[in-house]
Amino acid sequence: MYARKDRKDDDDSAQGGNKWSGERSSVLQEARVFNKSPLDPKKCSQVLTKLLYLLNQGEKLSAAEATDTFFAMTRLFQSSDVMLRRLVYLGIKELASTANDVIIVTSSLTKDMTGKEQLYRAPAIRALCKIADAGTLQAVERYMKQAIVDKNGSVASGALVSCLHLLNQGCADIVRRWPNEVQEALNSDDAMVQYHALGLLYQIRMNDKLAVSKLISKYTKYNVKSPYALCLLIKLTCKMIEDEGYGTDCPMFNFVESCLRHKNEMVVYEAAHCIVNMKSTGPSEAGRAVAVLQLFLSSPKAMLRFAAVRTLNRVACNHPKIVMSCNIDLEQLISGTNRSIATLAITTLLKTASNESSVERLMKQIESFMTEISDEFKVVVVESIQSLCEKFPNKQGTMMGFLAKMLREDGGFEYKKAIVDTIIDIIHSNEDKMEIGLGHLCEFIEDCEHTSLAVKILSLLATKGPKTKNPSKYVRFIYNRLILENAQVRAASVSALAQIGSECPNLTNNVIVLLERSLMDEDDEVRDRAAYYLKILQKGNTDLFTQLTLSIHGLESALCEYLKSDMSVPFDASQITYEPPVKQAKPAAPLAVPEKKISPGKNVYQEEVLEVPEFAQLGNVFRTMPPIELTEPETEYVVKVVKHIFGEHVVLQFNCTNTVNDQLLENVSVEPVAMNGGWKAVHTIPIKKLGYQETASCFVCFQQPDLLDGAYNSGFTNTLKFTVKDCDPTTGEPDDNDGYPDEYVLEVFEVSLSDFIQKVANVDFVNSWEELGPENELEDTFVLSAYSSLQQAIEKIQDFLGMHACERSDQVPEGKQTHVLILAGTFVNGGRILVRARLAHDPTMTQGVTMNMTVRSNDESLPELILTSLA
Amino acid sequence: MDPGLSEPTLDVIKAIIIMDQDGHRILARYFDSAGALANEKAFEKTLFTKMGAAEVCMLEGLTCVHRYNVDLHLFVIGSGNQNPLLFSATLNCFYDALSLLFRKSVEKRALIDQLDTVFLILDEICDNGMILETDGNAVFSRLAIRGGDEDQNVSQLLQSAKDQLKWSLLK
């Protein structure tokens, strides 16, 4: 009999059902039992469980259904069955958001939360707060305050957690009135109560920096016992250190570091994780945190190993040398059964890898289980491959093969995108691998379900295809897409074909034939593009793909204006003016805004400068430097300068912020004066208006000094000039008077030779060196008396020239007395520069480092320029 | 993969899920509302296949911890930028409370039999994404279980008698 019952149950579960599952209508029907009297608690409990199960399977009730059931449920408060009552609380919480008039149960719940039955109190509080609005909460305020400081831990925790929810339910004002109670709860012996109280206290005071700082300094001294509260406290402390920019010598940091020696693993991990992730952390502090994480790596608990290796993976990006000490432990994790841990271990090793043979071995290992890991980890693998490609240019071929294999396998969009991006990176940086890379990408778009990736690859084919030996090959691939794909991809294919057609004269006629077939396409966009390009190609116009050099904002507003007019005159594009987008300064203490990621390659400032029509004709930006502060951070006017190097000009972008609330600034400009005579300003664009808390940019454009003058290094003294109008601080309306001119002296900044040199990675130095030959070669010997070690001298030279150290020649093995540093770069005029510097340092002598430097270039004036600037 | 410093918050748990041996949902509580059922089901499917027998993995930016016994798989899903040890503590608490409740092994039949109490356990462990308690014994003591013996059917009584006999012989 027992066995038979068993089989029956198995049958049930095979259909995905069990004794609780039921049709929604029949369950609602059964809920009528709630209205029967006398109540049958057992039956009611069963029906209620069925209802909860139904909702849990994802069934949604309509408002009417929910309200009916809710009201029936309120009758169950008559029963004193403990189980039933607890289920009723759950039911109330489940239905609270869909049913109407849920407020009706307030009094029943209030009775339970203050009653004698301890088991009811905490759940009743949580149910009550779920349905409470400001009015109800005010009515039960007294009870809530009592509950927060209740001796019973579950009651206090329930109340505190409910308060946290209430903060987001529009009752924040009331909850903020209870800081004393919360503070008292924080001294509780119960670990969870302490944790919840600290969390709530922080949420209440979050916007008051001083209060938070007091909170931290008080409780970092006070011995917080609860590990959960301690973890939270570490987080708060680190956030404070990070926000305020404290160094590693402050007492707060000492507290975090002391937590590394705590006996609870959770606390230790939290401290180590926070330390390695803080900006102010130096190598020695990070080293101590890594040492702790290293111990976790050999822990029997998978969770600890996972946590540790995940953090180390991140540290490996910033401090690869420190993580290297964990290599042996990481190696052991690779063979473990948990794929997540093994993948993180391998990618960490890849990041710290110092020689090419170990890279190859690791890649083989990772290949063996690529199919088993989730997309998230695959992306991590691809990212580490990307960084390896930069580090070991010789290995790009192997990597490319590996990437191509991954591209063929299954995977989501993010994963494929990461692969495609990496391949594109290699294509851009390495001419030799371009054709192979393009080949892989062509194969990929043959069977690609992601439209955006296909479009991206098509446009790449259009720009890179004509530069290959056999562009017609790519025409075939693109044309295949034109027949087989959706409208978006077809449109991109048409553009790509046209671009190849215009750049390869021998293919133009073939492309015209192909485009003619698209004239009958069913999609408007594809047809339009085909017709447009056909016309242009037939005219023989090859100047087809110059980019639009207009301010997009300006164009938009000008077109809107034009549409409002009667349109009797044709639209005049030259009338478009540049309007700098005025940015509002950040509101104080934003609520957990995720930090905006700025990818290092694309620079927001660069986009801003290119939007200025005056600068559009200067050509492409060669380099954009990171901003330099020209004022102290707390002054009335905050100014930063960003240097943009163009082909023949230098544009200085001054980013100004007005922090005076009763002033409106007009006609704001900065006057930089070069200390070196070779610099001439040719154009200045002021800011028209700058209100309180606004940030905008004014620009000054310089003609670059003559190459032969060698006047690239120059300091600039700066004065901020503007007209001040007093205004009402609250409305920002200026007074009627005309205002008065004023000046403000800014700090000095420098433009140096290194600004005009772009680092070139992935150069095969020896071949390039031979290729350039000794035609334009200059050599000189210097004594660098200021430096006491080779490493120091190398860092300075690299810094000064702004060039890329090839083949990791910037690393000096310890104890060596001579070293060869090789550098590669491109000058702003397109000239290639290669530098070979032989350095020697005798530690027994005091007179510093001797350097013999040879410079080769394809431009005859560059070697001289470099050497004279060094002298 | 590791997103660096995170916001100090108590709201760390995104979901708690129980599945059977075929990856079907028995119970699932998602604390980030407004997720469509289809999305939840899709997530559960990938979770089950990618996790396998592992204890922990990252999925869609979330840290997923896992514990299983016989035909039950328990998962706690937490936000990816929080301390993963918090989630394993929560999962262990859930598991401990269940084993105290079922007395014998944590398995599907027992779970279905006492589903109502399982709902209560879940409610005691996590309130809308915030961890309420991480001690299995404490959770169990807060359940309204008193003298549940009269509810036992004959076969269960027999089994427990057998167990007791076995233990006394083994001593």
Q: Your description of this structure?
A:
- The complex is a heterodimer of chains A (871) and B (171).
- Chain A is an alpha+beta fold.
- Among the domains of chain A are: 375-448, no CATH class; 450-547; 549-587, no CATH class; 604-751, Coatomer, gamma subunit, appendage domain (Immunoglobulin-like); 756-870, TATA-Binding Protein, CATH 3.30.310.
- In chain A, strands 1, 2, 3, 4, 5, 7 and 9 form a seven-stranded antiparallel β-sheet that branches.
- In chain A, strand 15 and strand 16 form a beta hairpin.
- In chain A, helix 3 (41-56) runs parallel beside helix 5 (82-95).
- The longest helix of chain A is centred in the N-terminal third of the chain and has 18 residues, at 227-244.
- Chain B has a single domain (13-170), classed as 2-Layer Sandwich (Beta-Lactamase), CATH 3.30.450.
- In chain B, 44% of the residues lie in helices and 22% in strands.
- In chain B, strand 3 and strand 4 form a beta hairpin.
- In chain B, helix 2 (84-102) packs across helix 5 (136-142).
- The N and C termini of chain B lie far apart (51 Å).
- The interface between A and B is large, with 78 and 59 residues.
Distance between the termini of chain B: 51 Å
Mean pLDDT of chain A: 80
> Rg of chain B to the nearest angstrom?
18 Å
Number of helices of chain B: 6
Tally of helical runs of chain A: 38
CATH topology of the domain at 604-751 in chain A: Immunoglobulin-like
Radius of gyration of chain A, taken over Cα atoms and rounded to an integer in Å:
35 Å
**Which segments of chain A are poorly predicted (pLDDT under 50) over 5 or more consecutive residues?**
1-15, 579-602
How many beta-strand elements of chain B?
7
The CATH first-level class of chain B comes to Alpha Beta
Biggest sheet strand order of chain B reads: 2-1-5-4-3
Tell me which protein chains meet in the greatest interface and how many residues each side has.
A-B, 78 and 59 residues
Helix content of chain A: 40-55%
Biggest beta sheet attributes of chain B: 5 strands, antiparallel
Shape of chain B: globular
Biggest pleated-sheet summary of chain A? 7 strands, antiparallel
CATH topology of chain B: Beta-Lactamase
Backbone shape of chain A: globular
Into which percentage range does the β-strand content of chain A fall?
Answer: 5-15%
Mean pLDDT of chain B: 82
| Secondary-structure element string of chain B | EEHEEEHHHEEHH
